[in-house]
Amino acid sequence: MQNLTRARSFALWLKTLGLGVGVAAILLAAGLAFDELTYLAGRGTLGAGDVMTVLAIVALALGGAALVAQLPESLRARFKGIPEAAKERPVYGFTTMLAVGIGATLGSPLFILIPLNVEQYEVVSLLSLVIATVLSVAMAKVYSDLGKQSKLLGANLVGGPSFARLAAGARSVRYFVSRVSMWIANTALAAYTKIVFLIFDFIFMPQILSAYGLSAGAVTVIVWGIAGGFVGWTIVNIFFEQRYLRALGSVQIVLTAALLAMVVYHAALLGNYGGWNFSGFFNLPAGSSWIPALVINTGYLYLLFFGFQEIQVMERDSVERSSIPVVSWLRKGYTLSKTAYFEVAMILSVVIAAAVNILYALSVYSAAHGLPSLQASCATSSCIPALYLAQHLLGTGQALLIGAAFLIATATTFIPAFLAAARHLGALGEDGYMPRNIAGLSWVFTLVAILLLAIGNENFLVDITDVMVLISLGIIAMSGVSSRRGGQVSGRALALVVALGCFLFGGAVYFVPGGGSIVIFGSVAIMFAYVIFDILELGSVGSQLFLSVFGLVCLLAMAGFGPSVYAGGTLTSALHYVGATPTSLLLWGLLLTSAFLIANVLTDVGVLRRTLAHVN
């Protein structure tokens, strides 16, 4: 008995020490990955040494994550006071869900992508918007059908990947990949909105407010007040979401309604300024070259419409029956079930967002037709296209209106994207892919990932969001094909068409300038998700053994062949006073994580052997 107690105490001490090593390894891997990928993206070429270095960084990150996952139960208990992402407190109804869908859809890309896209592609841009709308409505219908089936079966839903879980099982690679893809996409979208919000607030808002006649002191106070409000709003959603669930939903409704009113009003003024002149707009380009452009552009613009799926993520927070504005006023007591009002909210959010995007696109073409190129003008002055048009065509008042609309659109997109990302990661814990207590901290990991991604390039985040969402939605839609639904062939046919459309338009992003690396990154992310799934299926001991061998192999390869981590990045500057190089830290990190993983396995086996001997 004394030997067993000593063995357990040693195992606890070792795992606690390994926890610190794991956290340090993850942070180091994040810094190395940022510097290395930034360097490789700028260089544009990839050699065998680069691949070896990236694999070594991945091995370090996975080894660190495995050590953190061994967090002792005695330490996990300390985290019980932190709110979990998946507590049920249904208060949201149809109006809130519609506001979530529209707010998550009408984001900052409306003010950046639409003006440039309609100028470049003209009628092809309009056709792309229509196709993306049809595909999104069809996808919303597939979501609704699968949601109804899941409800009948009593399934627990956390977003669209739950449908893949229902069709293929919780321990299926299809479900795991769709969940991870959706987490990556929502995390990237949240990071993108965070970047553009702060850029707009600190760079463009001072220009707008100064032109409006405010003093320098007032401008400073307003700009910092907006930034502080955004940070405060984020903190409230992270830490007090469950306590103020109803109030947060009401704020989302008010902000979304204000955003719609602002954009529609501005589009009307912009169109009137140009006299709604569409001369030459509806003439298709000569030949058939516009057809591939249509496919490519549709994949690129689909980013504007996938926000409807955030509604499904809020399923646990929604009431079973909800009244419908206007209809319930005319017909007293009229309500819809959750599956019914979810379907209406998802489809309406797509249709309303599409109508706003198309109206704004047409107004931009009408007003900017015959003016100097927007793309050239914004390339030289680094402007926001929508703000540029408002300032030069409609005056300071409309520029201020667009500034306010831009900030609101960013805020109403960031929060649903962040909460959805945290819920997707938390759902993996519920399904046993990570310890539940660590899954309860999903918002922490998501927030850290957002902060790391926010350092990077915003265009990259837009593209990777687009590709990962299309991949995930394609996998989810395939669940409607394999799912048994009483012989509803039409439902299966629609799901198949939507799935193929998602994969087609996702792959078409490859042909967008710079899209090749994005699609490759998305494909690599899918492969790594598959590898991680296989590792997790090995169990605790098996995964630790595999990752320790993986780390040692990468260590020997790095030491033997001599590739080095890029030494001119942010991490190098931070290590200037330490006297270490990124490459040496990577090698030491691989050695330590592999050693601790092997030691964990040996101590676990020793404890198990002594426990069995004591029982016998």
What is the H/E order? Answer: HHHHHHHHHHHHEHEHHHHHHHHHHHH
CATH superfamily of the largest domain: Amino acid/polyamine transporter I
| Tally of DSSP helical segments | 25
Shape: globular
List the helices and strands and how they pair.
Blueprint: H1 2-43, H2 48-69, H3 73-76, H4 94-105, H5 109-121, H6 123-152, H7 161-168, H8 173-211, H9 216-239, H10 245-273, H11 290-301, H12 310-313, E1 321-323, H13 327-330, E2 335-337, H14 338-368, H15 374-381, H16 385-394, H17 396-430, H18 436-439, H19 442-453, H20 458-482, H21 489-508, H22 515-537, H23 539-561, H24 570-574, H25 582-615
Antiparallel strand pairs: 1-2
Helix pairs in contact: 1-2, 1-25, 2-23, 2-25, 4-10, 4-14, 4-17, 5-6, 5-14, 6-11, 6-14, 6-20, 6-21, 7-8, 7-20, 8-9, 8-17, 8-19, 8-20, 8-22, 10-14, 10-17, 11-21, 16-17, 17-19, 20-21, 20-22, 23-25
Could you describe the 3D structure shown?
This protein has 616 residues and is mainly alpha-helical. It has two domains: 2-79 and 538-615; 94-516, Up-down Bundle (Amino acid/polyamine transporter I), CATH 1.20.1740. The chain contains 25 helices and two strands. The chain has helices at residues 2-43, 48-69, 73-76, 94-105, 109-121, 123-152, 161-168, 173-211, 216-239, 245-273, 290-301, 310-313, 327-330, 338-368, 374-381, 385-394, 396-430, 436-439, 442-453, 458-482, 489-508, 515-537, 539-561, 570-574, 582-615; strands spanning 321-323, 335-337. 45% of the residues are buried. Residues 73-87 and 485-490 have low confidence and may be disordered.
